Backbone:
């Protein structure tokens, strides 16, 4: 299923949600993953001109893996050592991506962040237990 909507703050949301079994993830872990990733993406987009505000979220299950991709443009990054990123929000601790990484690793998954000059991309792959 593909859906494109605009949020209240003018962000274009491109959602590509395919049949995926999320039942192996606890409610808390689902919240950690999606709340942190979407909060970061929304925060990054709101600092951009309206025409550049876009978040793409892809959720699918392929060959025994749950796959989550989220991309968004950004105006600035707060890079830290060892390919980590901090928050650009004043007074914010910036532990969201660390929490996401820990949650993915709890399920023996892989978490990666990639950036280019304008786009921040997170890819998550988690093995799905065979029933």
Residues:
């Amino acid at each position: 299923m593909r859906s494109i909507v605009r949020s209240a703050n003018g962000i274009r949301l491109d959602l590509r949600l395919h049949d995926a079994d999320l039942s192996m993830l606890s409610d808390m872990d689902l919240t950690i993953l999606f709340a942190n990733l979407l909060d970061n993406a929304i925060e990054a987009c709101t600092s951009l001109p309206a025409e550049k505000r876009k978040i793409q979220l892809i959720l699918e299950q392929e060959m025994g893996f749950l796959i989550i991709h989220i991309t968004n443009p950004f105006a600035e990054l707060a890079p830290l050592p060892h390919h980590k990123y901090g928050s650009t929000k004043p007074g914010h601790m910036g532990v969201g991506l660390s929490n996401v990484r820990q949650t993915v690793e709890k399920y023996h998954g892989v978490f990666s962040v990639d950036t280019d000059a304008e786009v921040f991309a997170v890819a998550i792959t988690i093995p799905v237990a065979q029933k």
Remarks:
- The CA atoms of residues 2 and 16 lie 4 Å apart.
